[in-house]
Every structure is written in C-alpha cells, then in structure tokens.
Design brief:
Strand content: 5-15%
Low-confidence stretches: none
Oligomer: single chain
CATH class of the largest domain: Alpha Beta
CATH topology of the largest domain: TIM Barrel
Shape: globular
Largest sheet: 7 strands, parallel
Strand order of the largest sheet: 5-4-3-2-1-7-6
Structural class: alpha/beta
Helix content: 40-55%
C-alpha cells in the first residue's frame, strides 16, 4: 500500500471505512471516556505547507459529516497562519465543526520543560489571534525523547501522550502496540495503510495525515511538490499584486 495515490477518492474511501467501524471519536472523547479500555480511532491533519489544501480536505470531510483535528504552525516560513486569507481558512474549518490545534515546531529545543512553556505561550497567542479556543497540540517532527515521554502542558491535549500513542524502539508496521499509529509521513505508509482490514484489526488507533500531500488526482512525491510550488508561486504573485500597485507594471513580464 506504500504506493497508494494520495487522491481525494482514496480519502473518501478512508472516511467511509473509518465511520463504518463505529470507533471514530475526538481526542477529548478518549480522555473523558469512563472506560479507558474502550476502542477508538482518532485522526488528525498536520498542515506543513498549504492551508488551502487543508480546507479542501475539510470540505470533503464535511460532506460526510466527518469532523477531525487540524493543526497549524505559527512559526513556519511557508505560510502565515494569521494573515487574513489563512486566518479565514482556519476559522472556516473550525466553524464547520472541526478542532483547531497548534502544530508545534521544536526549533531545536531539547528540554521538555522549555518546550512545554513554549507550547503554552504559542497556543495562547494562537487563541487570541484567531479567536478560537486552542486546546490541543501536535509536535512537528518529534524527537525520540518527545515520542517516548510526551510533553505535559496543563489543559492541553498532547497527541503523542500515552493515551493516543505507544512508543517502541524501531517500530515497524507489524509491531504490536497498545495504540496502533499510522501516518502518511514522508509520502509513504511505513506503518501500514489504514484500509478496512487495519481499521477493524486494531481496537485503538491514531491516524496522521498531511493535507499538503492530498489532491483531487493524487500525485507521486515529485509531482506533488511540483504542484505545491506552482500553487505557492501563484499565491505570491497575487500577494505582490494586492500589496504593491507598482507590481502590476511588471507582473506580465514575470509570468
């Protein structure tokens, strides 16, 4: 399944299969469940490059009445979560019943206490700037230390806490864990593709998707980044055009 196309049709089928299990819920539901042994499937979207693609995936989910968590960075060179365009996208995703969280970039920090304080600060900023209660975070490219220990922050849900994630050295797709984790990270499914069989095999699961990889047609890694660059170029041209009147004098020469 490592070569599955990252198309919206595949995503739709995944949603249908997840819903059919009857186990899908939100992270907060898992924590509030009186029976900690109850089965669950939680799913999140970590947004690295394209809030626009996150919105497209949300629209698909909305058609299935499928709500999930979308995590955005606020220390990212690729997009500004607080620009009007991106803030409007995030607010629309939230208004449609989805959860918004911080996708935390460690920025080479190694101290868990320092990271916890930074996460608390960033979620507070994010809440104030967007007018949305931010009650959860996911870590971008977490270190082994973070995966093993999690990051404890009062009143915030850590998607890598032991409630949702089981750490194991050198885990593979066949490693038996209390919580099955699978992800499309690096444009492949190293821990197995979440098909109907997998979804029904494991009682507890967390699925991580990156909207930046998913499109209507589905691409391989090369062509996906090619289209992302094209989309970003078009955005930058429009940004320059809206901000600088003199840009209009040279836009045609640049395109």
């Amino acid at each position: 399944m490592s070569n599955m196309p990252f198309s919206f049709d595949v995503y739709k089928e995944m949603i249908r299969n997840i819903q059919a299990t009857g186990k899908y819920c939100d992270y907060a539901d898992v924590l509030s469940d009186e029976n900690s042994d109850s089965p669950f499937i939680v799913l999140r979207h970590d947004v690295e490059f394209s809030p626009e693609r996150a919105l497209e995936m949300q629209k698909i989910g909305n058609a299935f009445d499928f709500k999930s968590s979308y995590f955005f960075q606020i220390s990212n060179n690729t997009y500004n979560a607080f620009s009007k365009k991106n803030a409007d996208i995030i607010k629309e995703i939230h208004a449609n019943g989805n959860y918004i969280g911080l996708h935390y970039h460690m920025c080479e920090k190694t101290d868990l206490g320092e990271m916890a304080a930074d996460i608390k600060r960033q979620t507070s900023i994010m809440s104030e700037m967007l007018g949305i209660n931010i009650d959860r975070f996911s870590v971008h490219r977490p270190s082994k230390m973070v995966l093993k220990n999690g990051i404890k922050v009062d009143n915030l849900i850590d998607t890598y806490s032991t409630n949702f994630f089981s750490f194991a050295e050198n885990a593979t797709a066949d490693t038996v864990l209390d919580v099955k984790y699978t992800s499309d990270s690096m444009f492949r499914w190293d821990y197995g593709f979440p098909d109907e069989k997998m979804l029904n095999t494991y009682p507890k699961m967390q699925i991580l998707l990156h909207p930046d990889y998913w499109t209507h047609t589905g691409h391989d890694n090369l062509n996906n980044f090619r289209t992302l660059l094209e989309e970003n170029r078009a955005d930058r041209l429009n940004d320059y055009d809206s901000e600088c009147k003199q840009f209009r004098e040279v836009r045609d020469a640049l395109t």
